[in-house]
Structures are given as structure tokens and as C-alpha cells.
Amino acid sequence: MPHATQHADLATAELDSTLRSGPFHVALRAAIAARGLPLQRVQHHLSRYGVKVGVTSLSYWQQGARRPQRPESLRAVRALEEILQLPEESLIRLLAEPARHAAEQRPAGRSYRSLVEASDVLERLLTEWDCPPDGGLHSLGHHERVTIGARRELAGRESHHIVRAHQDGVDRFVAVHHGDPGAAPERMAVHALENCRTGRVRGHHDTGLLVAELLFDTRLRAGDTFLFRYAVEDGTAGVSHEYVRGFGSGGGQYALEVRFDAGSLPVRCHRFAQPSAAAPRGGREQLRLSGRHRCVHLVEPRVRSGYLGIGWDWE
Questions:
Q1: CA–CA dist 63, 26 (Å, integer)
Q2: What pLDDT digit, counting tens, does each position of 160-219 carry?
Q3: Residue 219: left (phi > 0), alpha (psi -120 to 50), or beta?
Q4: Report field, pTM of the whole predicted structure over 0.90
Q5: Which fold has domain 112-313?
Q6: Separation between Cα atoms, residue 155 and residue 147, nearest integer Å
Q7: Which DSSP symbol is given to 290?
């Protein structure tokens, strides 16, 4: 079977290259692919070595979302070298290199810890403001436009909402903005653009979370629909690599557009989905820059609970 042989040769060549140059997660992914082992089988082999590692952890390791650091995890890496028939110390050596190198090759997505911490902070703020999680509103449509600036930073975003009240007396919406790592909510600004005005605004520096009330000029009755638009001015963090939107429950259509500065364009973009903070990412699909090569977008006809986003690589 010439085709299968050629494919195996290519996989082996890729593995040899990544074992020399790294980073760790790319080499691990190439090794698993070269051996043709699903993660469940890798986990089973590790258990025979007396090492317990979850499939989710293995997935995070090969995505670059986490790096093995604890003694038990390092034992697993040494066992993986045997299981995947790799030279001794080949993976351990790559782990010893600065984590910065791996981050430069493929930036990790938001970690489970950061997503959970932001969720906990949001829950506390909503409790303090006596707001139900959905604010008495169902989302019928949400169009979000994110702008990436010349410094490759998350400069800001604009949101256009179409909602329907499912209870009487609804007169506000709580907007949530989760800045990139290192963001400073105290230096962000919220702008009410259409059919709303800004109320209370709270920021949480450690998580980069900004929460703002948008007050309507009317009280909605159950069944009423309403349209409003607002923007968040950010630009307070470093280089941005992705934008993620979380959904606590299912809803209507969601459209996300990411626009890049014409003088600083990424080399590739992709969409992804994540059912929960603890789940690995899936639904990865490459996206092409359009509109004079400056923007990408995704459209989800009916969102489910979880996370949707667009990621990009600069080089």
C-alpha cells in the first residue's frame, strides 16, 4: 500500500523534526499521531506503568494548554517515551526548555482555572447586584465585532443584541467582558451606543473581568423584544491570540467577527468550540481572511451552553 507507506514516512519525518526542535506539545502530538494511538489507549498503557493520567490532561498536554510539571506528571512523560518508542529523555529535554518557547510556537487557550475563576467572580457580582443569571432575557440574536489593533492587542469590541423578555419588569442587561491575560479593567471603558445607558460598572483586576449594567429606557413585559448596542474599549493587555465567548445556556443566533489592523495580519485563523471549561476544545475549522484580507467570522445558528471562539497565529 504505497499511500499508507508514504503517510507513515511523512509522520515519522515530522516526529523526528519536532523531537529535535520542539516545542513539547507539538512533539507529543506528533509522537501519538505517528503511533496511531487514540488517547484512551495511551491512558491505558500509562496505567500499566502505574501512572494515572486523565484523557483530558493528555489532550491539554498535546494542545499546549498545560505543561506537565508535578512529579507524577513527569513520571508519565518518561513512561510516554517508552510507550511511544521515543529516544530516552527526548520529551523530558523539551520540557526542560523555557515554557516561553512553547508559548511562542502556539499560544495556549484560556486555561480551565482562568475560566472557572472568571465564572466565580461573575457569579459573586451578579449576586451582589441581585441579578438572575439570564437577567430575565432570552437571546434571539447577538452580533459581536472584535477589533485587534496595530500592536496585536484586543483593542475593543462592539455588541448588538436582540432579546426577548420572559418576565415582566425587565429594564437592564448585564454586559460581561473578559480581557486577555494582563488586562486592566480599571482602564477599560463601556460605551452605551443605542437604546441603553451605562449603569454600575465593576472590574476584577486578577481575572481581567469587566461587568457593566446597561439600563434600558423602558420596562419590558414578558414576550416583548428589544434591540440595543454597546461597546467596550480595551487595549490594556499584550498580544492577543484568541477571542472566546461563553454561554450559560442555549439561545439564538450568534455571529462573531474579528477585524485586524491592516498593518498587522495573522498568518492563519480558526474557529473552535468547547462544551465546558473542563472539556477539551473541538469543532476546529480553519477560517480565511476576507474583506480586503482583514477579518474573519463565524456564525452559529443556535448556540448551546459552553464556549465559542476564534483563534489566530501571528507567525
A1: 8
A2: 999 999 999 999 999 999 999 899 999 999 999 999 999 999 999 888 999 999 999 999
A3: beta
A4: no
A5: Immunoglobulin-like (2.60.40)
A6: 6
A7: B
